[in-house]
Amino acid sequence: MPPTQTEINNVLWRACDTFRGVVDPSDYKNYVLTMLFLKYVSDVWKEHRAEFEKRYPDDPEMVARQLKRERFILDEEASFDYLFERRGAENIGELIDIALAKIEDDNRGKLEGVFRNISFNSDNLGRTKDRNRRLKNLLEDFNNEKLDLRPSVISEDIIGNGYMYLIERFAAEAGKKGGEFYTPTSVSILLAKLVAPKAGDRICDPACGSCSLLIRVGDEVRDANGKPSRDYSLFGQESNGSTWALGRMNLFLHEKDAADIRWADTINSPQLLEGDALMKFNVVVANPPFSLDKWGAEHAATDPFGRFARGVPPKSKGDYAFILHMIETALPREGRVAVIVPNGVLFRGGAEGKIRRSLVSENLLDAVIGLPENLFSGTGIPAAILIFDRRRERGASLASREDVLFIDASREYVQGKNQNSLSDEQITKISGTLRERTVEPYYSARISIEQIEKNDCNLTIQRYVASAEGEQLTDIAEVQHEIRALEAELLTVRKKLDDYLKELA
Q1: 5-154 — its CATH code?
Q2: Which of 339, 372, 351 is nearest to 461 (CA)?
């Protein structure tokens, strides 16, 4: 019988024992996931080669021609089996690095650069003797009979799910660093359903991490008959080179090879361009880093793409930098945006307040969804999802929609030992409420743009959705932020007054 998903996951997780206590989880994930990728391409190539050899037993040239038409090319000396046979070699780390370089060279355009940020011959894995022992153990772990990854034995879905399982476990172990490369499964599925991608859509994640969110959104695409469709294109950008590589491998394992994923800082060096302009997309989703410090505010005023015409976000909080970028890359009068943000984005004053007022008055904001606490790796702070819809622009299909849907989903979740999650039922409820724009006491409310503007465009959900006790809750953090903002404004006014009085004197 073929191995189950649970059996595959367990074998993969045990392989991590090789590095525990030696390498930080945020680093050793790269070695384990790369070895899984190598085992996958080796097993697929081995099976396909055997099929062609059986079909053309006396024609090796025909076998070679058929293999060149495969998704990728694999030299025998770059295969997992070749390395496993030499697992006791004193230079096994160097042999693995040579194999990975060969795979890149033979697959330029598809796998070029994927392994540039990892070395199995690095001192990070210990002194030579210790490193060799660990790599020998790793190769033996992946030679497990449960990890026969040939297509005739195991489905691509199980392999891809195993890769995502490892990423999720690594994110949990890495703590705060885990949030830099992974969006929890339930949150990714929720975002995918909220943006409701359609066949033919161009989908982008400008802070794509390991591409798990991007994959989930792609999997949500349906044709006119409601059946899964592959008629879409995926794009993304990631600033961390190692994470970019993991994302490329993740997409390859999920047979999404054509995805265009760039390695660079999205805010300071956007790479997804058409000519001199930002590329436009039907759907833009992201879980960007919360309140990123030193995000590039010093260059925002002269941004060649005009992304910060509504205002420059604070130097120490880049949340609105990502939001503004996402809105500008959504197709005018058509694009949809879903972004995960810390709750402070809903109410902070100053430059953020100015930007928020502009987005509300332009009728771009479609929904604000409050999430439960402790959903994300390494942080228990509550977060929200903002939905922007450019179909609400003047002259577009939803221009007559002049209210914002507020959903308080913060009280409904599945409690976990270390991290909470959303159940399928809760995901369905949230996405259904958005789709139908349903109003439900203590859960959701539709609030006019006029009323929001009267509240100075404060988007705190509890201002608009009453609690079960029939009261509007006081957000202490919000009050503190508002007091600080007022104090800062008062200092500015006092300074201007002092300067004015000095001039009079």
Answers
A1: 1.20.1260.30
A2: 372
